[in-house]
Amino acid sequence: MQFGGNCLITVNLKRYVDASKISINRLSKITGISRPTLTNIYNGKSKGIQFDTLETLCTFFNIGISELISRTIPTEKFQFIELSGEKINTDENRIVGIQYERTLNNKTDLEVAIFIVSFNKIESERLTEGLNTSKNNLLKKNLSFSLEWVNKQDIDLLKNKINQSVLHEIRVNNMLMNFGETVGLFKSLKKSLMAYIGKQIIMNFISNSNIDIDSKTRYQIIINWNLGTESALNPEKYHFEYMAFSGMVISMDDESDGIEQQYEQEHTIEDDTFRQITHPNLTKLSDKQHKGK
Q1: What are the per-10-residue average pLDDT scores of the chain (293 residues)?
Q2: Domain residue spans in the chain?
Q3: What CATH class has 8-72+258-292?
Q4: Which of 53, 106, 131, 200 is the most core-located residue (most Cβ within 10 A)?
Q5: Which pTM was predicted?
């Protein structure tokens, strides 16, 4: 099901059905949902789903609605904007913008959230453990970034550090998002997409600074997004780790948000305790089947 241009609303029934190794026919008998309805949802062909159907599926698989339904926004919807007016200095904060392209009823709008990027360089250390003697000179360096959202009213306080021509264009076109809009957008993003946006910020920072990502140095990079109460209550969603070496920046966060990896493990683990923890309803079903034999 598609809504809003290239944004994709996905019902993840296939993920849970396949992981649980239950047939559509069996699921239909247990839940009371018709087989054609489940088949269409499973194959991604359903054009609409009733609330009671969603409630039944969430109850059966013991999951939340946000796990059953996800919204995928393609990376091309986002663009990184460097707003700092002066040349990058690794000892100073940077001002950046995250531009989001939103399409609604065939009308495209551009929205921008502005962040202060605080940079911290941690002491270097040598990587010797697990390496042979020829590589004992490999250096490991740590970089830490904190991205804090800037209130519209506070932007004027940063006027000496912001490229005013770019900021003027953003203001004239009324592109600045308020805090509620920014939090709403970022709450809807998959962690893999936020990791991608953070990666763009890191790559820009490195390419415009005196940091040299060579083959002899490995950088461990951490980004923490500060979105007020939202990030304080869900710190794991807004904490990202990267590795940089040989001119590359690699995200260490699972592109699938970790859930596919969890269920891949479940395919290979037949332990009843593990299955009961992950799918309590299926364990009860299995018990009933066993008793009925």
Answers
A1: 54 92 94 95 88 94 88 88 69 84 88 90 53 53 90 85 89 92 90 91 82 79 94 93 88 56 37 41 42 42
A2: 8-72+258-292, 75-251
A3: mainly alpha
A4: 53
A5: 0.69
